[in-house]
Write a structure and sequence with these properties.
219 residues; alpha/beta; Rossmann fold; six-stranded parallel beta sheet; 10 helices; globular; Response regulator; CheY-like_superfamily
């Protein structure tokens, strides 16, 4: 099996070198490591990697250039996996990133909450394989800002949705909440119904459920 090819974008030299070394040790093939948003776009266009891992705030403005570049790349290169790795929750473009493409192959993780390197590697590979993973703290912050849809859900349904956003299966959610898998299935069905999501395959509806909240949170 060929290693996952990665373009890494991080403006901090020490952190960039650290991530480069970590990803290489974890079996990823880092084809380019850059320090600004323009270089990120150029390297991704040139190398056509499987995955982009990017900081959110990058030169020249140190606001949300990395996130905006990621959104642009997702539009230009369908199927490109992108992980935003940040210290901050950028509400507007976070929703745009997570809503780009079909909502798959995308993640938003907070740097200071990545504490297990093997789990980090597994998360990156899950996203490359089509998963959507949002740090639960990002979900909580966005949920606090959102308006309509959450008012329809019970506290337990909100908890289930947060775990869905982390990329957990029904079985994993059941184990975490100490309830049956059947109960989780009922909660998920209720969430999807309350969000008025159109009939589709279950995995896509789960992604759309998370994206519905994130779009609402960014408005």
């Amino acid at each position: 099996m060929q290693p996952v090819r990665v373009v890494l974008a991080e403006d901090g030299v020490l952190l960039r070198e650290g991530l480069l070394d970590l990803l290489t040790r974890l079996g990823f093939d880092v084809v380019a490591a850059v320090g600004d948003a323009d270089s990120l776009v150029a390297a991704t266009t040139k190398h056509r990697p499987d995955l982009v891992v990017t900081d959110v705030r990058m030169p020249p403005g140190h606001s949300d250039e990395g996130l905006r570049a990621a959104v642009s790349l997702r539009r230009a290169l369908p199927g490109l996996a992108v992980v935003a790795l940040s210290q901050y929750v950028e509400y507007g473009y976070a929703g745009d990133l997570l809503d780009s493409g079909d909502g798959r192959h995308v993640g938003y993780l907070l740097k200071d909450r990545v504490v297990d390197v093997e789990e980090f590697a597994a998360t990156l590979r899950h996203i490359v394989d089509g998963g959507t993973v949002v740090d639960p703290e990002v979900v909580r912050r966005l949920v606090r800002r959102r308006r309509d849809p959450l008012t329809r859900l019970t506290p337990r349904e909100r908890e289930v949705l947060g775990l869905i956003a982390e990329g957990r299966s029904n079985n994993a959610i059941a184990a975490r909440l100490v309830i049956t898998e059947a109960a989780v299935g009922k909660h998920v069905g209720s969430i999807l119904a309350k969000l008025d999501l159109p009939p589709d395959d279950d995995s896509n509806r789960r992604v759309l459920a998370v994206l519905t909240y994130l779009r609402a949170a960014a408005t």
